[in-house]
Batch of 2 targets.
Target 1
Amino acid sequence: MKFAVFYFRMEGGKILPITYHLQETPLREKWIEQIQIKEQEEDAYLDLKITNKSVQDLPFLKEKLNSIVSHINRVYETDRLPLLEGEIDQNKLNYLHELFEEYGEESLDPEKFISKEVHDIWLSLNDWIHITEIAMQTTLDKFPCYSCLCSIYPPYNGEPLDEGDKLFLDAEWMWGSLYLGYNTLGKDYCHAMWDDDVRLIKNNQIKIQTLYSTECWLCFGQTPYMGKNTERDFYQWYLKQDEETRAMIPIHDRDKLALGRYYLGRVIIDETFTRFNPDLERWRHDPELQKRWNIEVFSKIEEFIGIEIRDTDDENGESDS
């Protein structure tokens, strides 16, 4: 058995370890190999992109996005991006993301690429757009669908996925699941549906994942009561489109749709969780307990400070409950 342990620093300096049991698949070995290679590089550093904000944080998020927009506009000495005015809504975020994607295509031209520093500012804009999208849907009365992306940087393109890897695509998003990161500039079919971004379909701008890297996604969203929710929602969204748009969606080819993320494993209910509540049986099946942990613990994470791959589970009496 193999395990991955992620170490986080929280508000106040406390260290939070989160341990995952990695499923025995070819993807597991490929991902571990990337971790082992990249952590040995001299310029390696850890990167965290965390989604743990709610509607209460929208004023802060608006200020953050406008700060990034203003920075980019100063670089180009023109109003290349619009400042967010009034209430944030999905249409405004979709438009910002469209301009980000235009930059992404432009950045591939060496003559138009300004610098790594400017490129990183654009990437930061993309990150904060997605953080804001989740925050807009997260209220105190709803389950906070928190998650984070952990990577070993500096960024790199990644390695190609094999067609057989699609066997491990999963769209259930169970609380405590670990997946490969999307590692792709743009949006896939799922993201287009969530944002109702039909423009991506009409402009043939859908980008399904073809590469993987050290990036992984720690998902603490609500476990769905019924299975196949994502597929059901996608099919209903597909049916709402006009005939021309539907013809551009490969609804009869699941490999081309590539709905979901590539599954790596699930969280171990160890002392990280039992210190919060000792009832092992409740952790997998009690959404109220999971919701409280998200709000009271996960929301306090500030920094990703370490990752460890273990071949055996021999130290802490962890329970794979």
Target 2
Amino acid sequence: MGLFSWLFGSPQEVKIGQACSVNFDSTKNKDYKPEIGDDVKLWAKPNSIGIFVYAKGTGGGNGLLATTDNKSISNHLHQKGKYDAKISDVTNNQLTLDITLKDDLITAR
């Protein structure tokens, strides 16, 4: 176990088909007020385990709500995996999302 894992805990593993709650560090976006129950979009930074949470309906980098590092979610997103993600809790510094990774992949048309 590394020093950071010991201090802060290991990032939560998210399994296919199993709903779980994951905490994200809030970015304090003044243009978007996240509400419990809102659907959100997830984006994984290429060649990284960084996950970015965006308000649904935004694009071009706008609407950033929160970030975290999570290897299992980033791997799923890098493989074009589908998911459901919804805000389940909002605090000053954190968003909690209920995330379900699906075992089917997004296919190009």
